[in-house]
């Protein structure tokens, strides 16, 4: 009798683990988006944009051994539809050794507006480089581009129009994927990016977004905070802007064209690096997760970032509970089978990609979902060990 009661107790505990894990995952990926949508509909805060607002802009680019891409990136910025007298480009070369500096100087020689090169020695990473560039920037607005980012010709105009609203301190654009020839892949967005961009649109209507792209961002220069070399500027800088009482908004008309990463290994490495730096950023800015400051933004930051990065934990506990309970009741057996099929399609997606095959949504969604959560898990392990990423390598992480 005692043994049977003990077994029932274990069953009860695993049932609780199963449903808590399931509900937590459902909230992270579905519940939060529904809540943010309802809030955006109930009390929308539109941005007072104006295309006539065209202040002086400094485009900041950090580069390390980017000889392959830097000329195309600079020519892309030189062709932007924005008043020439209101533009300058500042490039910091983080002790590049591949001819990046010479290429920048050659482009600068015949540029229609100032292109200035600064060299950072010894190598200190992107954040330190951007801190340096800010000291030399003459623009009222700082725009941030990666060394391999191609912007749509109207992108800067679209970004800057948001600063007509005095409540806006930081603006992020929309990334679309292109093939090597520059053509959009499908409608230019992966299913994951469509989901993220939709969330950003809702969060903008609520007040501020909690995640930005990094390759196409802009902010008011007076709000720029000097960051530590190990802090992720794409994550911490917008949070610092919110802390100062300004909005961080999403501008879907500012397009960043990025070549899709061709293999999961590159994507995985990049995601681990970004996730690790984001975890340190959350630790540095943990005061924003306190409801005592801004309860709505605290809820957004916890739901969209902290819980999303930690989603691998309920994924693991859900799998364990489903497998344990599968012999007990048909519902849990179905859950275990469904989970197994999901992982099979993720593995099959990985295999197909390894062979150079394109992935349909049936394979791509599970594959990318598992890849993101494995990257978060690896980042959490590195975070727990105290590891930090300060410097970077071009493109494929």
What features would you describe in this structure?
With 397 residues, the protein is α/β, with parallel strands linked by helices. The radius of gyration is 23 Å and the shape is globular. It has twelve helices and eight strands. The model is unreliable at 1-7 and 181-189 (pLDDT under 50). The protein has helices at residues 2-42, 70-78, 100-109, 126-136, 155-161, 191-206, 233-243, 264-284, 295-309, 312-325, 330-354, 361-384; strands at 57-63, 87-93, 115-119, 141-145, 150-151, 168-178, 216-220, 247-259. Helix 1 crosses helix 6, helix 1 crosses helix 9 (295-309) and helix 2 packs parallel to helix 3. The longest helix is centred in the N-terminal third of the chain and has 41 residues, at 2-42. Strands 3-2-1-4-7-6-8-5 form an eight-stranded mixed sheet, with helices on both faces.
Task: List strands and helices in order, with pairings.
Blueprint (H helix, E strand, L loop, with lengths): L1 H41 L14 E7 L6 H9 L8 E7 L6 H10 L5 E5 L6 H11 L4 E5 L4 E2 L3 H7 L6 E11 L12 H16 L9 E5 L12 H11 L3 E13 L4 H21 L10 H15 L2 H14 L4 H25 L6 H24 L13
Parallel strand pairs: 1-2, 1-4, 2-3, 6-8
Antiparallel strand pairs: 4-7, 5-8, 6-7
Helix pairs in contact: 1-6, 1-9, 1-10, 2-3, 8-12, 10-11, 11-12
Largest sheet: 8 strands, mixed
Q: What's the N-to-C terminus distance?
A: 58 Å
Overall spatial form = globular
Give the beta-strand count: 8
The H/E string reads HEHEHEHEEHEHEHEHHHHH
Separate helix tally = 12
Helix content: 40-55%
Unreliable segments (pLDDT under 50, ≥5 consecutive)?
1-7, 181-189
Structural class: alpha/beta
Estimated radius of gyration: 23 Å
Lateral arrangement of strands in the main beta sheet: 3-2-1-4-7-6-8-5
Beta strand %:
5-15%
Average pLDDT over all residues: 87
């Amino acid at each position: 009798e005692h043994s049977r009661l003990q077994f029932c107790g274990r069953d009860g505990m695993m049932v609780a683990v199963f449903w808590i894990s399931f509900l937590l995952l459902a909230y992270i990926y579905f519940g939060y988006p529904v809540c943010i949508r309802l809030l955006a509909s109930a009390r929308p805060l539109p941005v007072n944009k104006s295309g006539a607002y065209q202040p002086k802009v400094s485009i900041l680019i950090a580069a390390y051994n980017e000889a392959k891409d830097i000329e195309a990136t600079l020519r892309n910025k030189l062709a932007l539809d924005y008043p020439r007298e209101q533009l300058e480009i500042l490039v910091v070369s983080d002790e590049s050794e591949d001819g990046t500096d010479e290429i920048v100087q050659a482009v600068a020689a015949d540029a229609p507006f100032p292109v200035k090169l600064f060299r950072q020695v010894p190598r200190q990473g992107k954040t330190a480089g951007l801190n340096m560039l800010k000291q030399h920037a003459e623009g009222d607005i700082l725009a941030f581009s990666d060394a391999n980012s191609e912007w749509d010709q109207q992108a800067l105009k679209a970004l800057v129009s948001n600063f007509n609203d005095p409540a806006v301190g930081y603006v992020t654009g929309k990334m679309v994927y292109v093939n090597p020839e520059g053509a959009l892949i499908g409608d230019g967005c992966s299913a994951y990016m469509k989901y993220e961009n939709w969330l950003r649109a809702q969060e903008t209507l609520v007040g501020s977004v909690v995640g930005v792209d990094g390759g196409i961002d802009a902010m008011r220069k007076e709000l720029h905070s000097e960051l530590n070399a190990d802090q992720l500027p794409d994550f911490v800088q917008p949070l610092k802007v919110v802390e100062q009482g300004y909005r961080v908004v999403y501008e879907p008309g500012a397009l960043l064209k990025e070549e899709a990463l061709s293999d999961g290994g590159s994507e995985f490495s990049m995601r681990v690096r970004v996730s690790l730096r984001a975890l340190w950023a959350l630790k540095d800015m943990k005061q924003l997760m306190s409801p005592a400051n801004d309860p709505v933004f605290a809820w957004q930051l916890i739901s969209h970032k902290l819980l999303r990065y930690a989603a691998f934990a309920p994924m693991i506990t859900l799998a364990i509970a489903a497998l344990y309970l599968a012999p007990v009741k048909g519902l849990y057996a179905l859950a275990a089978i469904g989970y197994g099929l999901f992982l099979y399609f993720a593995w099959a997606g990985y295999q197909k990609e390894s062979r150079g095959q394109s992935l349909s949504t049936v394979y791509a969604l599970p594959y990318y979902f598992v890849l993101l959560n494995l990257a978060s898990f690896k980042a959490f392990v590195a975070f727990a060990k105290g590891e930090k990423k300060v410097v970077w390598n071009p493109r494929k992480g």
